[in-house]
Design brief:
The protein is mainly beta. It has one domain: Beta-galactosidase, Chain A, domain 5 (Distorted Sandwich), CATH 2.70.98. 5% of the residues lie in helices and 45% in strands. The radius of gyration is 19 Å and the shape is globular.
């Protein structure tokens, strides 16, 4: 593969990676750097990817004035969403969910995992970092299940691979649908110059009452200034790859939904399976926001009630979902 979308793409070999502790915006973080590509991660604040730069250029957006006292509300990086994504509600009240017995629980929008401290459990591989979250009495009040949730980042010369791995450590099936919230660095004035390929068959939206509605997708190519992309679900992908392209600068960013292939082609261990992404949501906050979000999710908002993408993980089983971001320049 030498040409794509009119650009000559230069593939680079894997480079040696250094993994160190450093300081960023006055806080201790982990840095992974291979001299071409660099990421900053904060396990203590939700296993959050803060920044990703390549050859000094930002790929993932992070604000200079981030409020670390309210990090879950900062628009930037990649917040990790677990056990549920986006808005769940009971009788129109966001931040609540109801179990089969009728008991109602308080659970923040996007879940609690983006607010919690993870433990680093694998430092040996310089190319990756595994961070782990375990259920606690605090989480049982919001989500009465026992589980283990790992987030694994792996850095390549021009790639970033992320795996979400969920293990049911309890005795009953575990309901969940996790996801990503990648903030890609796109200056707002440049949105018309960025094209986005979304090869899917259905679109969806959440209704005010938490239900979802769908229509057949009638196009696959967009520019990032298209308002129809905001808060829309893309489902039933016909290709594994979502592609962002800025032709004038010779840059292409591919979000590769690896699990679509893996679930078809990869042999599974009896108690550990690889699962596909259910949808990809597109969003940005405002016309002057210097970011655009592409979000692979395992289920749709409020799936705990309507079932669209809701996963039930058997006791003792593990499921993982992986995506890879590839950056190519002319």
């Amino acid at each position: 593969m030498g040409y794509a979308c009119g650009m000559q793409i230069h593939f680079r070999e894997t480079l040696p990676t250094m993994k160190t502790n450093t300081t960023f915006q006055g806080h201790a973080v982990w840095q992974m750097d291979n001299q071409q590509s660099q990421i900053l991660l904060t396990p203590e604040q939700g296993a959050r990817l803060l920044t990703w730069t390549m050859d000094g250029h930002p790929i993932i957006y992070w604000p200079d004035d981030a409020d670390w006292d309210k990090l879950a509300h900062v628009r930037g990086g990649n917040p990790i969403l677990f056990p549920f994504v986006a808005r769940h509600m009971v009788e129109g009240v966001i931040g609540k969910w109801q179990d089969d017995s009728g008991k109602v629980y308080d659970l923040p929008m996007h879940g609690f995992a983006r607010d919690m401290a993870y433990r680093v459990v694998d430092e040996a591989d310089p190319h990756s970092l595994r961070m782990r979250l375990l259920s606690t009495p605090e989480t049982w009040e919001m989500f009465p299940f026992e589980w283990q949730f790992d987030v694994v980042y792996k850095l390549g010369a021009n790639t970033l691979e992320v795996t979400l791995e969920t293990t049911n450590k309890g005795d009953a099936p575990l309901p969940y649908y996790a996801g990503h919230h990648f903030y890609f660095a796109v200056p707002h004035q440049a949105r018309p110059q960025w094209s986005l390929s979304l090869p899917c068959e259905r679109w969806g939206w959440q209704n005010p009452d938490g239900s979802v509605r769908f229509v057949p997708a009638d196009k696959t190519e967009f520019t990032l200034d298209d308002p129809s992309l905001i808060d829309r679900f893309q489902l039933d992908f016909t290709s594994d790859q979502i592609v962002l392209t800025q032709q004038s600068q010779g840059q292409r960013i591919t979000v590769d939904l690896l699990n679509q292939r893996q679930t078809r082609d990869t042999p599974q261990r009896e108690s550990h399976s690889t699962v596909p992404w259910y949808d990809v949501t597109t969003w940005t906050q405002a016309p002057d926001s210097d970011f655009f979000c592409i979000e692979p999710w395992l289920g749709l908002p409020n799936a705990i009630h309507h079932g669209e993408g809701l996963r039930w993980l058997p006791a003792g089983y593990t499921e993982s979902a992986t995506c890879r971001i590839i950056v190519e320049r002319a």
